[in-house]
Design a protein that fits this description.
InterPro entries: CRISPR-assoc_prot_Cas5, CRISPR-assoc_prot_CasD. GO terms for molecular function: RNA binding. This is CRISPR-associated protein, Cas5e family. Pfam families: Cas_Cas5d. This protein has 2 domains: about 150 residues, 2-Layer Sandwich (Alpha-Beta Plaits), CATH 3.30.70; about 35 residues, no CATH class. It contains 4 helices and 9 strands. A 5-stranded antiparallel sheet has the order 6-1-7-9-8, with helices on both faces. A two-stranded antiparallel sheet has the order 2-5. A two-stranded antiparallel ribbon has the order 3-4. Helix 1 packs across helix 2.
Length: about 220
């Protein structure tokens, strides 16, 4: 999702396969979840006639098929969401001097070429996406330096970070499939990550506001 979000902010097209694959390969990132929220199913309907068309991810219109009775009932969809989830992503790009640089990505997220959305088009950002830039030893260190949002419960966060990007007591190693082949549109790339639960900020108690210069 992060590759697509950044690519959209930069104004890239869905068909820019080489650029999107290269950006994905350069991203080194981890996540901290402060509030897991709750699962929500959105029930959607649309009354479509025989001559109505729908737009697909391939960028071309798709016509409907079927007899007359096919169009008497609405088209039904069930969409899964995570309501009130609060997550922080720490990332860097390697090599750092290749375009787009980290600074260029931050500028694009602040002033995107197109409207941004989180996963699905109805899910618009409710606040600024860039929390700041921080100097840290690794991805896990960057995640732990950031204070929680005021509404966070101030107990424990869930961390996920790449192999070799920090150490945490009682961490478990898992393999996840979250890398996308942008030409085929299928997720099939695996990578090793660690997961653990722990305090929000190392050696810092819960605070009521975000400090300057965080990740």
């Amino acid at each position: 999702m992060m590759t697509g979000l950044i690519g959209n902010a930069l104004g890239w097209a869905r068909g820019d396969f080489d650029r999107l694959d290269r950006l994905q390969a350069r991203l080194v990132m981890g996540t901290r979840i402060d509030e897991s929220g709750e699962a929500m199913t959105d029930f959607q309907t649309a009354q479509l006639a025989a001559d109505d068309t729908g737009w697909t991810t391939q960028g071309r219109a798709e016509s409907r098929r079927g007899g007359e009775d096919s169009y008497r009932s609405p088209h039904l969809r069930f969409r899964q969401y995570r309501a009130r989830l609060d997550a922080l992503v720490a990332l860097r790009v390697e090599p750092a001097d290749e375009e787009p640089t980290l600074d260029a990505i931050a500028r694009a997220l602040d002033r995107p070429m197109r409207p941004l959305f989180i996963g699905r088009k109805p899910c618009l950002p409710m606040t600024r996406l860039v929390a700041g830039i921080v100097e840290a030893d690794d991805i896990l260190d960057a995640l732990r330096r950031r204070a929680p949002a005021p509404a966070a419960s101030c107990e424990e966060s869930r961390y996920q970070w790449p192999n070799g990007e920090g150490a945490f007591d009682r961490a478990r190693a898992v393999d996840i499939c979250d890398e996308r082949n942008w030409k085929s549109g299928v997720h099939g790339g695996w990578r090793s990550v660690f997961e653990a639960r722990g305090p929000f900020v190392a050696a810092v108690s819960c605070v009521s506001s975000h400090p300057e210069g965080s990740a």
